[in-house]
From TrEMBL:
It comes from Ruminococcus flavefaciens. InterPro entries: APOBEC/CMP_deaminase_Zn-bd (IPR016192), CMP_dCMP_dom (IPR002125), Cytidine_deaminase-like (IPR016193), dCMP_deaminase (IPR016473), dCMP_deaminase-rel (IPR015517), Deoxycytidylate_deaminase_dom (IPR035105). Signal peptide: none annotated. It comes from the Bacteria. This is dCMP deaminase. Residues 8-132 form the CMP/dCMP-type deaminase domain. Keywords: Hydrolase, Metal-binding, Nucleotide biosynthesis, Zinc. The keyword Hydrolase applies. Zn(2+) binds at H78, C104, C107. Its cofactor is Zn(2+). The lineage of its organism: Bacteria, Bacillati, Bacillota, Clostridia, Eubacteriales. GO terms for cellular component: cytoplasm.
Length: 160
C-alpha cells in the first residue's frame, strides 16, 4: 500500500517558498515565492534581496533612516518580482504564485501583467495598509484568485 500521510501540493509549494525565504539577508522580514504551472511543475522561485550585481554588504538594510535612501525600501527587490524575473520558462500565464507574505501593490501589478492567475499567501501582516488594500482591489478587478494558505497542522522540518 502507498503511504497516505504525504503532503499536499499546496504544502509542498509553500514549503519551497518558505525555504526560499531563508536565502533573504533582510534582518526584519524574509519573504519567499514559488511559481508553479498547471502541471504542478516549479517554473521559478525568488526571495527578497538586493538586485543582482549589488554588493549587499554595501547597501542599507534598515527600516528607518534620515532619508529614504538610508533604508532598504528603494533598493530591495521583493520575492514575487524576483520569482517573475527569474523565470526562464516563458509565459507565466495561468500559473500559481505561492508567497509567504501577501503581495504589495507593486508586486500585484507585476503578478497581473505576467499572467499569474492564482496567489496563495501564508501571512498578511500588512492587511490594513493602503498597499495591500490596493493589491486586493487590483487582484479582484483583474480576475486573480487569492487564497490564504491552509495548513493541515503538519510541521515541515528540514535538518541539514
Amino acid at each position: 500500500m502507498k503511504r497516505t500521510d504525504y503532503i499536499t501540493w499546496d504544502e509542498y509549494f509553500m514549503g519551497i517558498a518558505l525555504l526560499s525565504a531563508q536565502r533573504s539577508k533582510d534582518n526584519s522580514t524574509q519573504v519567499g515565492a514559488c511559481i508553479v504551472n498547471d502541471k504542478h511543475k516549479i517554473v521559478s522561485v525568488g526571495y527578497n534581496g538586493m538586485p543582482t550585481g549589488c554588493v549587499d554588504d554595501e547597501m542599507p538594510w534598515e527600516r528607518d533612516g534620515e532619508s529614504p535612501l538610508d533604508t532598504k525600501y528603494p533598493f530591495v527587490c521583493h520575492a514575487e518580482l524576483n520569482a517573475i524575473l527569474n523565470s526562464s520558462f516563458g509565459s507565466l500565464s495561468g500559473c500559481t504564485l505561492y508567497v509567504t507574505l501577501y503581495p504589495c501593490n507593486e508586486c500585484a501589478k507585476a503578478i497581473i501583467q505576467s499572467g499569474i492567475k492564482r496567489v496563495v499567501y501564508k501571512c498578511n501582516k500588512y492587511a490594513n495598509t493602503d498597499s495591500v488594500k490596493a493589491s486586493t482591489i487590483l487582484f479582484d478587478k483583474c480576475g486573480v484568485t487569492v487564497e490564504e494558505y491552509q495548513s493541515n497542522g503538519k510541521d515541515l522540518v528540514l535538518s541539514v
